[in-house]
Amino acid sequence: MAAGSFAARLFGNRHLSPTQTLLRRLDRDLQDPPGTTTLAVLILSLSRSDVIGATLELPESTLINTVLLERIGNTLRPNDYLALASPDEIWIVLPALASATVAHLAATHIGRVLQAPMQAGALTVTATPCIGIAVTSLSQNTSLGLLQAASEARKRARSLSTLFFVATESEGVDLHSKDLIAAVTGALAQNRLTIAYQPKVDVATQRVVSVEALIRWPADLAPALSPMVIVEIAEQFGMIKELTRHVLHTVLREYTTLLAATGLPRVWINLSAGTLADPGLPEFLQQGLDIWSTRADVIGLEITESAVIADIEQSIEMMHALTERGFELAIDDFGTGYSSLAYLRRFPISELKIDKLFVRHMRSSVPDTQLVRTIIDLAHNFNLKVIAEGVEDRPTLDLLAEMGCDQIQGYVYAKPMPAAELVRWIARFHGELAGE
Hints:
By secondary structure, the chain is of the alpha/beta class.
């Protein structure tokens, strides 16, 4: 998307749709989700140096409002929309998200574009943003409920002096429930969380070249929690290092006792934003390898775009520290619409994963097909392997193969499964390939 094109379409004649228009459109999105179940509402408040002029709607401050909205609008995707609720408050809606972390990435970009002062005649204005985010299942919330949740999250962000805070209501779960926090704490302490593995298949050779390790909640423990909710609770309440430790040691134990015998070269685990920001991460990972007498190249580390962009320079430094230890790195959920391609050449990564949101709809959406093709070509220009996740049917697989996609992950081959089942599945899959 060309710079300014979104702003020009949204702010035609320098006019922004009022909040009532935003609410009506949000209500429609909640009733008729465009091919996904995830949506985010952001409430952005601004501490402005021209607060008096803005309140009085002086001409200079009115011009600053236009600059503010254009800066923010240029960070958003074509389907995102926003409204000026007051001179110091902006409402933003991000429909059709692949995951909650995409909203984090959007908030980070908004914070970056508002860092530079704004000029209106002789007036120079600074605006410090504070953002509350509500991310939820579309079928379980109202527009006013989402705005209220985002408003509360904004208050929390201000009290913590952070750019943004997320109040997630996915699956109807209150992330601040004491019982829920205790349940996650107990599941970790009792080693009740398990790992499921989903294969990644090389398109050319039809061999399993690696697997992704995915955290799973105990089947007999209510309420059932998704991996996203488990990670969010762990991050918000100081358990993320313990969760990462549990995943790492479970993966290393199951690899050395079961998976290595299959010839599987690598298991990928996911790093959260909080884990990536920990300066002790390389040594933490090395200690796990030493305990299980395993090489670093056995473990691949998948990092989401939002985790990297949150602190780009620190993240790049950490990524280099990890590759120097021998770990392979991949960027997960690529193509969500808020990423900066300028950073891609600086990442010491070997793989790029295309977000399942675009893969899932590429056969019925020309823009998604074009985006997937562009990502594959771009990645190959950077000598990166491309993995498409969320591939569920043979026609999509064939289309990706035609585009030159390197690896496939999805139900078209297999759902995530426990380690012992994976061993049998790999033997059967490779045996069928060999005609046994």
